[in-house]
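Internal tracking record. Fields below are filled automatically when a chain is submitted to the structure queue. Please do not edit lines marked as system-generated. If the sequence contains nonstandard residues, flag them in the REMARKS field before resubmitting.
Queue: standard
Priority: normal
Entity type: single polypeptide chain
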Amino acid sequence: MTRVLVVEDDPQLVRALVINLQARRYGVEAAPDGATALRLAAARQPDVVLLDLGLPDMDGVDVIKGLRGWTRVPILVLSARQASDEKVAALDAGADDYVTKPFSMDELLARLRAAVRRTEEVPLVPGATLVETADFTIDLLAKKAVRGDHDVRLTPTEWHLLEILVTSPGRLITQKHLLREVWGDSQSNKTNYLRVYMAQLRRKLEADPSRPRYLITEPGMGYRFEG
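SYSTEM-GENERATED OUTPUT FOLLOWS
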C-alpha cells in the first residue's frame, strides 16, 4: 500500500483528500501544520507527501527544505499561490511537482501516480546508459543521439541540457537550475537562452516540434522530459 502524508490546514480539503485516496487503496495520514508534518514524516516514512504552502506555523518551502535534509520522498505542492516565483521557490527547494488550487481530483491523482511511479523506476546508473523513446534513442555513455537510422548532431550545450532532462524523467526542472547547470550562476536569469536551445532540441528530436511529446514546457517554471 502506498502511504501518503497530507499536509494541509483546511479540514474540508483534508477530508476530501482522505476519502478519495482511501477509496483508491492509499494509506493516508494528515498533518495540520509543518511541525507535525516533519515529525510524522520521520516516524512513518511516507511514500509521497502532498503539501500545502500556506501553513499556520511555517512556510511550506521550509517544510520542503526540512524533508530534503534527509529524504528524497516525492513532494507534490498544493497551493492557491499563483505567482511563478513562489512556484519556482518551492521547486528549487526540492518539490517534485506543483498543483494549483482549485484542482480536479483526477489531475491530482494522475500527478500522484506519476510521482510514485518515478520512485519505483530503477535510477540511472553507469551500466544503464540508454534512454529509448518511440522516436529517438539517447546513449548517455557515448554522448550520442539517434533518430530513425541517423545520428543527431548536437552541440555540447544542447547535449548538456538534454542530459539533465533525460536523467530525471518526468520531473520538472526549473529554469534557474538548468541555466545554472549549463551556463553558470552569472547567466541564471537568461531564460531566452533556454527557449532557443529547447527549440533546437525539439527540432532535432521531436516528430512535431510545435507539439512536443517529450520535451515539455511548464510556462514560467521550467521543463520536463516525458519518456
